[in-house]
Structures are given as C-alpha cells and as structure tokens.
Amino acid sequence: MKSARITKPHEPLEVQQLEIPKPMGPQVLVKVRSSGVCHSDIHLWDGGYEGLDGQILKTTDRGVKYPLTPGHEIAGTIESLGDQAEGFSKNEKVIVYPWIGEGLCPACRSGEENLCDKPRSLGVYLDGGYSEYVLIPSFKYLIKINDDLDMDAAATLSCSALTAYGAVKNANLKPNDNVVIVGTGGLGLMAIQLARSVTGARIIALDINDDKLKNAKDNGANDVINSKKEDTVKSIMELTNNLGADAVIDFVNASKTVEVDMQFLRRRAKVVLVGLFGGELKLGLVSMPTRAYRLIGSYTGTINDLAELVSLAKRGVIKPLISNRFKLDQATQALTMLKEGKIAGRGIINP
C-alpha cells in the first residue's frame, strides 16, 4: 500500500510502499477514502509546539516516533476484519474515532479516551490516514455511516467537528449568550454552525481574513470583526452593550489572541482554549476570583460525542465545508497551504 509519511520534521513527506497490515483479534483494516488535513498534522510535521518563553515542545518528547503516517480524520470502507471483530462486514462505510487510549487510566474508564494519560491516537502515535489502508486497533472505534453522508464530509467529523463540538459543550452556552469565536477556519466554521444550531447563542466571529469572515457570516455568525482593521475590544463591547462576552472559544490560542480575549469578558465568562499555536499568557490574578472567569482547555471529544455529530450531519444540521482536495503525492502541498492560511474550509486527501 502507498502511504505519505513524515520521515523527519520539516522534510517533504515521502510516499512509501508499505506492506498491507493483516487485522488480528478485534482489529479492523479500513480502506481509506478520505483523510482530513488538520493543523495538528502541521505540528507533527514541524516537530513541535511553541511553549513558554518561545521554547519548542518537541513531539518526540511526547512519545511521537518518526517515520510516521499522519492523518487522524479518516473515513473509508471495511476491507477485512480480525477474528474477534463484531458488528461490521466488508465494504461497509465507516468513520474512525482516532483518539485511542490505553484503556486503564481514569479518563479511559470514564469514557474520555481523548484525555488518556498514555494516548495511542491514530495519525499521532500510530500510523494514520494519509494512506491507502489504516489498521484500527478495535472495531469499537468505528461508526457506521450510510449514503446520506458524503465520505469527505464524514472524515472531518472525527477531529474538526469533534473538536468544535467539545469546545461548544465546554462553553456551556445558553440562549442569547454572546459568544466570540476566534479563528474562522474549518474548526471555527463548524463551531459557528454548532453554536447556532444547538445553543441559541449570539455569535460574534473574529478573524483577520475578510474571505474567512464572509464564510463565517454565511455559516451563521451574527456579527463579524476583522481584528486587523478594527479595534476588537471596542467593537465587541459595543455589540454587547458594554457588558462583554459571556464566552470566548479561541481556535488560535496564541499569546496575542488570548491577551485580547481577556479584555472583553463579562463577569462569569468562560474562555475555552482550543488552538495549538502556543505561547504564554500573563494574568491579572485578582480579576480571576473577583470576576469569576473560567479558563478551560478543550481537546477533541468522546466517541459518544462523535456518534451525536454523525446524527447531526445525517440530518443536515451541520455541513462541513470541504474547500480543497488532494492526492497522496500532494500531501506536502496540502500541509503547506494549510500552514500558509490558504485553505478556507477543510482540506481532504483522497488516497
């Protein structure tokens, strides 16, 4: 099988010929039809994240090993099953839940494998979907889909939509709350759709790209602000009758964006940090208790959340925006375009 692999950080991905895995026990071999291109893949390609004082947190220090086949947003068809795999048959359409835990830690025991102490996530620690086939450790990480759901759109549910859904849930929005969505790429657009559909909140979208802000408006944002052209804090305070935002969901999560976030918060506001841009934040500690702010880190979601998303997508409540499609030998181009902000919605690799 052909797989596009990161051999070394910063090096172009290599399309390599690998042996097709044979599933054993509960394992399932999936023929990949669609694999989403995610910002997390860029961090794997770069070899790290920016931490405190500009220090790089290396992916290898987190247990990532190269060469690696990235890709954790995966939709495809069942190719073959191990002798203990149940409930699926060859050629059935499925999406993959990639946030696999080791099964024994408190998070795994409570159904939150995405927060496992020793994660084994596909496309991060195990080979993922930039490939013609991917081996799934157990059938329990698969969700059936049918012809009502486009395969490319389905793939994005397992990270882009799931991450947005988890963030919207963590924001705990109520009808008529004012929520600011920072960053209107693929995740931000999905969060706007979800917040509009399931919370009844008023949505203010924030970005530096007018085209992305137009997409935000088209996807349900009530107001949009270009933070490069406008005074962000002043604009948001005017839109909220000088009370401030009830919640912020920051899909960039850089020092500059979060510093601004903290300036337009209403009392009791929640700041949900999602993006992995990195950096550091200085806090006025007295304001944290006196204004009762809540800082919340949000990382993807559970397999039950993914099942809910599949239901929402099947009913047309949410519609992932697929803006670019690539082949395996274009994987480096896909990551480069995403890194340069040239993909408005979601990019997909079709092996």
From TrEMBL:
Q: What is its EC number?
A: 1.1.1.1
Its top-level enzyme class, in one word, is: oxidoreductase
List cofactor names only: Zn(2+)
Kindly give the Pfam families that the UniProt entry links to this protein. ADH_N, ADH_zinc_N
Residue ranges of domain Enoyl reductase (ER) in the record: 8-349
Keywords, A to Z, come to: Metal-binding, NAD, Oxidoreductase, Zinc
Record's Gene3D superfamilies? Medium-chain alcohol dehydrogenases, catalytic domain (3.90.180.10), NAD(P)-binding Rossmann-like Domain (3.40.50.720)
The Gene Ontology terms for molecular function here are: alcohol dehydrogenase (NAD+) activity; zinc ion binding
State the source organism's domain of life: Archaea
List, alphabetically, the GO terms of the cellular component aspect.
cytoplasm
What family does the Swiss-Prot or TrEMBL record give for this protein? Belongs to the zinc-containing alcohol dehydrogenase family.
Give the protein's recorded name: NAD-dependent alcohol dehydrogenase
Q: What is the lineage of its organism?
A: Archaea, Nitrososphaerota, Nitrososphaeria, Nitrososphaerales, Nitrososphaeraceae
Record gene name: adh
